[in-house]
## 1
Amino acid sequence: MIFHPTPLAGAYVIELEERSDARGFFARTFCASEFEEHGLKPTVAQANVSYNHLAGTLRGMHYQVPPAAETKLVRCTRGAIHDVIIDLRPESPSYLQHFGVDLTEENRKALYVPEMFAHGYLTLTDGAEVIYQVGEFYTPGYERGIRYDDPRFAIEWPSEVKVISDKDANWAPFDEETAGEAHTTTAGSAATEAKS
């Protein structure tokens, strides 16, 4: 794997290191020891998939607070998405900065998302499918969110948002005072699609 640092401390775009021959190619998509060598958390507590019918579908911006803060390794296996993360760690040099990257079935890139980063994406194609390896169990009481169009961050999404859940459309504006605190949510444990 080839690890490319992003402008946000601890977040990486990861490319495959392909071994090709007449049959096609072989490549490693995850290796705990390589993650540790780059200072990344290698734990995988859950693996999830989201399927999106239409281009213009927005999911985000989601995160979990301690003690259930989670890392994510995100990859688009069908179609294409524009993936965005926001650094919410007050001690970080890139605090409140955001970064976006296109993840597609053609480029096969993945995005490593550290703990206490908000994460979300906009689908660029119909039928986009996204795989997540997540470093902590989904814990509804520790789930938080930020509106995708919060003016505090002014994220420039590459196209119009056409499909969004009521939950994601109604996250409160970002509040630095409460961003790291746990809260109670009415979402049930089956609502993994709304957080990843």
## 2
Amino acid sequence: MICRAFRSCYLSMRFTRYPKGEPYEITPRKLAAARRAVQKEKDHYPLFPELLKHQTAEERLATIAVERETWWQEMRDRHAKLWRKARQALRELPPGPRAAIKRYWNICGRPGDPVYLLTIIHEHRVRKVCYWHVMAELRLRFQKSS
């Protein structure tokens, strides 16, 4: 009898969602630090106030909040792009190795990250690891233990 983990699961793949960024909270401590930073910049360039990036502490914190939100969205977009690349690479494989890699991916202990899936696909393509044989060995081990 074959373990349930070895049954092919063509409809779903294991993955880990990339976290959403938390909203930037303006606290009294951050406001005080921003005031000190703005004052330091003003003291550093007293003759050229037009060169200052921020005129007020609130403006500085608003810029930080926007930049942080932009950074989080860029990271989420990059992560989604890697998932699309990994799924495309998986679709380009022949049916046998594709099924073996999918089965291995769903039971392996690696994190559900697209970089790990791309690594598995790359290892298969350069003939470093044949996941068809890896799955056969695992199947034999499970059969012997049960």
